[in-house]
Design goal:
mainly alpha, 15 helices, 399 residues, two-stranded antiparallel sheet, 2 strands
Length: 399
């Protein structure tokens, strides 16, 4: 009789754990739900938690933990895709038709190595085939986006939308009432806002790399938010009033008008802020302009002003900190190495990943101290802050 090896025992253990999990989370609650139909119902819904047994409370907490982890994992997967977008889009490469490969040896990356965060950790930060170092930036972006989705999950989704203006928060919040008794209006608003913030982060990272998106990609970014907002007006919480500019708008035109006005507000707001810092319209960062337009398209022209103010505060604060902090210079050897790699890239007409890896790790001499952080990075952080305090800010300004 053949004795199972260690890997077989691991597979057996995982199968048993899966069976136990399904039994605990699905089978037992199903039987309990059937039996509960014969029990006396509580008089008030708010008494449910007090009437729960210890086992039921443990099961509820388990469901809450698993659901939160799922949203984090979903965000980390989006972060993994953003890494692809940031690398390929400026180069005009396909996002879906081309398999992920090691930029040094060209070996296709296996599925098990593509798991967000865990893949990088299991590889020890190196390519399985050639052993070249993989930038820490990749798992870092996956972690940031995962935490971003988790933040909005708590602040905006299972809270019942307490941070959202205009819209009345749900009377019953929490995982059970929002997720399992799915409130699709709130879920779609959450996903819409996550998409906006993910795009802002992608634009900021492309700026940080010193790259530029082609015009067709800039238009695509805008359409990815404008089209859903136009088709599903409930995504736009703060709309242009039906009677605006002395004209009575038909109901069907309210959402398109909100999108157009928000985009125009974002355009002029970005130009004004950029000119305040750069003193030259020719140096306006196109990704920052698009980013603020995306805010206007998704959240309305009021959010453009609010986000712009937070962006200015963050930029001024960073400028003060950078001015007071000692400037760090790179060793001449590192500068020489980067310069040699750039010359090799130019001579061979190859896009050497080694140069990008060094920049990702903060070894680009123009960005090592963070003194030249682009406005688009401050805009992303401002949009996250705005999303958390949106209702308070909106009520404070009495828009």
């Amino acid at each position: 009789m053949k004795v199972p090896d260690a890997k077989a025992w691991v597979r057996i253990a995982l199968v048993l754990l899966a069976i136990a999990f399904v039994t605990y989370m699905v089978f037992i609650p199903t039987v309990d739900a059937i039996l509960s139909s014969f029990r006396e119902k509580p008089k008030k819904i708010m008494q449910l938690q007090n009437d729960m047994t210890l086992a039921e409370q443990v099961r509820l907490r388990t469901i809450e933990g698993v659901t939160a982890f799922w949203f984090f994992a979903y965000g980390a997967a989006i972060g993994s895709f953003l890494n692809v977008v940031v690398y390929r889009m400026p180069r005009g490469e396909s996002l879906v038709l081309k398999r992920s490969r090691c930029p040094m040896c060209g070996t296709q990356i296996a599925g098990r190595d593509n798991i967000p965060i865990l893949g990088w950790l299991m590889l020890g930060g190196r390519c399985r085939a050639c052993g070249v170092a993989i930038s820490l930036r990749y798992p870092t972006i996956e972690l940031i986006v995962g935490l971003l989705f988790l933040l909005l999950y708590f602040v905006e989704l299972i809270s019942g939308g307490v941070n959202l203006p205009i819209r009345r928060p749900n009377d019953y919040a929490g995982v059970v009432w929002i997720i399992f008794y799915t409130k699709w209006d709130l879920v779609t608003i959450y996903l819409f806002h996550c998409a906006m913030l993910s795009m802002l982060l992608a634009l900021a990272l492309i700026d940080l790399d010193g790259k530029r998106l082609p015009m067709k990609s800039l238009i695509l970014f805008a359409l990815l938010l404008a089209v859903p907002a136009g088709l599903f007006p409930h995504l736009l919480l703060v709309k242009i009033p039906v009677s605006s500019f002395g004209v009575a708008l038909p109901t069907w035109a309210q959402a398109p008008a909100t999108i157009v006005v928000g985009a125009i507000a974002g355009l002029f707001g970005a130009i004004a802020i950029a000119f305040a810092f750069l003193r030259d319209f020719r140096r306006v960062e196109i990704h920052f302009v698009l980013g603020l337009m995306l805010v206007g398209i998704s959240l309305g022209w009021q959010a453009v002003l609010e986000t712009a103010v937070i962006t200015l505060i963050l930029k001024l604060g960073w400028s003060l900190v950078s001015r007071w902090s000692p400037r760090k210079e790179l060793p001449d050897a590192v500068n020489s190495e980067v310069s040699d790699l750039e010359e090799t890239k130019s001579a061979l007409e190859l896009d050497l990943e080694g140069v990008n890896l060094r920049r990702d790790m903060g070894l680009d001499p123009t960005r090592v101290c963070g003194r030249n952080l682009q406005l688009s990075m401050f805009l992303f952080n401002a949009a996250v802050i705005h999303q958390v305090i949106w209702r308070w800010w909106f009520d404070f300004l009495k828009w």
